[in-house]
């Protein structure tokens, strides 16, 4: 049983080996690993299997041998035919080869042509693919050459996004792709160069641009004023210009002519687009936008424009000398901001409102500082007025473009003060010239025509003068109507500055009155005071000046009416400023009166200095001194001139003259350099004092009550009476009593004069006869001197 299993196992192994499907190594290993002597048994089994196969092969060969023999025999028969066939085939092949050589040649030609045709087709296809790219690149080159850079950038975008992907494998495409960044940089540089040229161009054209814009603004303003005037005419309002009240129709005619002239020139007025080609900045902006570098362009543009703004805002050092300097300064600034406003409205983002506002605020601060500094150098009111008009047009122009200009109008108030100062200086010269040319005598008129001419210049009303027959005289001199006219001219000049300031009539009225007050209280008052104090102005001129100031003072109400007619603001308005002319002329009159008193006293001093007394004379001449009689005659003639003065002025002058004369005569007696006086000299001096008293009693100026004027010499009279009568006992007995006869005689004065006479007695022996006749009288003098000294000492101790 076991052997059968082993045999079966070997059979299986052999089957596996014959099948060649399983790995033989595992099969053989299973033979040797099963049991001892397995190899031997397996080999035996293998040999038996081989023998079986050999037997089968032999059987098969025997079975097929006859067929094999037959096949060989048949093959040998075919061999002969095969050789014949080979010869035939060889011959046929030879002939075929000979015949096919030409075909081969033609076939090769056909193949070559087909290859060329295919290559041509391929080339055509590739060229059709490349031609649009090349055409676009050629178009790009053409656009670059014709400076159509924005279109060139668009073409580049098309090339990169559409065309280059088709031909990216070709070398020429790579070259093009590499060249595009360089072209973009070239475009940026060229565009930036164009922008620089544009910036330089607008810098050069700023004057013309600003001038054009200001002309347009002025034309529009003139037209608006014309419409306002027409509206006022509907309500019957009049304005007053030049020297007379004239209706609005005249002003309307002037405005119409002005408008017609501007309409004729309107065609010549160019716009900013006509003066400047803005295409470079548009082109550059578009180019940088396409390149995605718009921010760089905006920053560069704004930086350069700020630099230009600083240059424009820097004035010339001599700008204040001429109005053209100011005009050039304003036109450049206006031109700059007109360009910025245009850029703001035609571009998006390049210039913003915030940027222009910041730039304008910076410029406005600089402009105000420049104008404030340069206007302070202006001394010509006409130049200041021209400057004001330029500032107004400048402000109106920029306001029309949306820029705030309130600070400029505030500046005009400072300029107005400067204008008023220059006007005051100019009118100070005018007043000085008027005073220099005046003859300080009443205005003579010989006929009605001359009378009307004076009345038309100055509002003088005097019924008594009107009734007088020709020839006659106005009480004032020529300077009065001239000054009145010049004050009105000053008001007109001041009014010119108030025009176009967008102020109400009340404010204009207030400005006019304040400036007129300055003219009266400062300029005219100063000129009058300087005139009054001039050395060559005599008493007659001073009297005429007082008369003139009186009439000018009366004319102040007409000046107030004049201002009211201009502004249509009633004087009864609560806030209306009053003119201070009354106080001005009163002060001038008081100064003239004081100068009269001073000059009159100086004249008296000049006469007194001519006194030539012989203080040692024994007997008087029997008549008054010549210098004193000349002085009295002079005073009489002067006081005749004073009849035109107000009563109190003439009386005060007369009293002052008499008091000064009395004081001068008293000082002459008590002069410390005068050491001795004789009784004859005292008597001669008494004669002069008597003449003074006679003059005072003759009432040289009417209006004095009783002997008021004579009291000016009361001190001299009592002193001279005391010495002439030699009434010392009465003087000493009544001294200090209110009812004393010699109440005005001071003990010190009496002592001084008595000692001068005492010294004369000792030296000239004048009192010798007294000593001989009456020695007691000499003792009386000694006693009087002692008593007077005692009184003087008592007064000193009391003091």
From TrEMBL:
Keywords: Exocytosis, Transport. This is Exocyst complex component. One of its GO terms (cellular component) is plasma membrane. Gene3D superfamilies: Dsl1p vesicle tethering complex, Tip20p subunit, domain D, Exocyst complex subunit Sec15 C-terminal domain, N-terminal subdomain. Residues 408-756 form the Exocyst complex subunit EXOC6/Sec15 C-terminal domain. Belongs to the SEC15 family. The keyword Transport applies. One of its GO terms (biological process) is intracellular protein transport. Residues 45-214 form the Exocyst complex component EXOC6/Sec15 N-terminal domain. It holds the Pfam family EXOC6_Sec15_N. Component of the exocyst complex involved in the docking of exocytic vesicles with fusion sites on the plasma membrane.
């Amino acid at each position: 049983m076991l052997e059968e299993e082993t045999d079966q196992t070997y059979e299986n192994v052999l089957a596996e080996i014959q099948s060649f499907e399983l790995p033989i190594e595992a099969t053989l290993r299973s033979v040797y690993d099963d049991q001892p002597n397995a190899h031997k048994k397996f080999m035996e089994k293998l040999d038996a299997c081989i023998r079986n196969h050999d037997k089968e092969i032999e059987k098969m060969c025997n079975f097929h041998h006859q067929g094999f023999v037959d096949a060989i025999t048949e093959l040998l028969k075919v061999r002969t035919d095969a050789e014949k066939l080979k010869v035939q085939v060889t011959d046929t092949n030879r002939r075929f080869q000979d015949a096919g050589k030409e075909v081969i040649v033609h076939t090769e030609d056909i193949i070559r042509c087909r290859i060329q045709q295919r290559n041509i087709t391929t080339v055509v296809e590739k060229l059709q693919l490349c031609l649009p790219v090349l055409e676009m690149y050629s178009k790009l080159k053409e656009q670059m050459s014709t400076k159509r850079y924005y279109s060139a950038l668009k073409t580049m975008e098309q090339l990169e996004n559409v065309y280059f992907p088709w031909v990216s494998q070709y070398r020429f495409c790579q070259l093009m792709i590499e060249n595009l960044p360089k072209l973009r940089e070239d475009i940026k540089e060229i565009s930036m160069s164009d922008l620089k040229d544009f910036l330089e161009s607008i810098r050069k054209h700023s004057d013309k641009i600003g001038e054009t814009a200001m002309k347009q603004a002025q034309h529009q303003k003139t037209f608006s004023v014309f419409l306002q005037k027409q509206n006022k005419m509907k309500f019957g309002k009049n304005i007053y210009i030049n020297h007379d009240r004239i209706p609005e129709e005249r002003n309307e005619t002037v405005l119409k002519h002005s408008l017609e002239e501007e309409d004729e020139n309107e065609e010549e007025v160019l716009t900013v687009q006509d003066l400047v080609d803005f295409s470079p900045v548009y082109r550059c902006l578009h180019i940088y936008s396409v390149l995605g570098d718009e921010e760089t362009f905006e920053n560069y543009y704004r930086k350069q424009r700020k630099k230009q703004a600083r240059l424009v805002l820097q004035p010339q050092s001599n700008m204040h000398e001429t109005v053209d300097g100011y005009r050039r300064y304003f036109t450049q600034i206006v031109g700059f901001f007109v360009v910025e406003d245009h850029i703001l409205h035609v571009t998006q983002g390049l210039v913003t409102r915030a940027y222009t506002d910041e730039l304008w605020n910076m410029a406005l601060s600089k402009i105000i500082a420049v104008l404030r500094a340069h206007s302070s150098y202006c001394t010509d009111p006409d130049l200041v007025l021209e400057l004001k008009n330029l500032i107004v047009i400048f402000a109106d122009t920029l306001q029309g473009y949306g820029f705030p200009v309130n600070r400029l109008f505030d500046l005009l108030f400072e300029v107005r003060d400067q204008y008023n100062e220059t006007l005051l200086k100019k009118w100070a010269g005018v007043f000085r010239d008027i005073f220099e040319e005046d003859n300080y005598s009443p205005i003579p008129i010989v006929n009605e025509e001359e009378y009307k001419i004076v009345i038309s210049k100055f509002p003088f009303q005097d019924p008594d003068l009107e009734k007088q027959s020709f020839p006659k005289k106005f009480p004032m001199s020529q300077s009065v109507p001239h000054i009145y006219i010049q004050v009105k001219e000053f008001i007109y000049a001041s009014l010119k500055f108030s025009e176009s300031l967008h102020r109400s009539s009340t404010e204009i009225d207030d400005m006019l009155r304040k400036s007129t007050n300055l003219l009266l209280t400062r300029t005219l008052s100063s000129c009058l005071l300087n005139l009054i104090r001039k050395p060559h102005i005599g008493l007659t001129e001073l009297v005429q000046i007082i008369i003139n100031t009186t009439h000018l003072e009366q004319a102040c109400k007409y000046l107030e009416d004049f201002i009211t007619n201009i502004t249509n603001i009633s004087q009864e308005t609560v806030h209306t400023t009053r003119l201070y002319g009354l106080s001005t002329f009163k002060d001038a009159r008081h100064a003239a009166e004081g100068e009269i008193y001073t000059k009159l006293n100086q004249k008296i001093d000049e006469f007194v200095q001519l006194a030539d007394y012989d203080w040692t004379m024994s007997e008087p001449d029997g008549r008054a001194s010549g210098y004193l009689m000349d002085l009295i005659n002079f005073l009489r003639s002067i006081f005749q001139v004073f009849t035109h003065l107000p009563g109190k002025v003439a009386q005060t002058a007369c009293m002052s003259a008499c008091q000064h004369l009395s004081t001068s005569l008293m000082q002459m007696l008590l002069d410390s350099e005068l050491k001795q006086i004789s009784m004859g000299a005292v008597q001669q001096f008494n004669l002069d004092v008597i003449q003074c008293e006679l003059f005072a009693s003759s009432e040289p100026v009417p209006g004095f009550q009783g002997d008021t004027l004579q009291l000016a010499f009361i001190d001299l009279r009592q002193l001279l009476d005391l010495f002439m009568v030699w009434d010392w006992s009465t003087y000493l007995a009544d001294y200090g009593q209110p009812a004393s006869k010699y109440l005005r005689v001071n003990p010190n004065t009496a002592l001084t004069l008595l000692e001068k006479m005492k010294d004369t007695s000792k030296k000239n022996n004048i009192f010798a006869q007294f000593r001989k006749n009456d020695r007691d009288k000499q003792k009386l003098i000694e006693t009087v001197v002692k008593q007077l000294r005692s009184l003087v000492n008592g007064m000193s101790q009391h003091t």
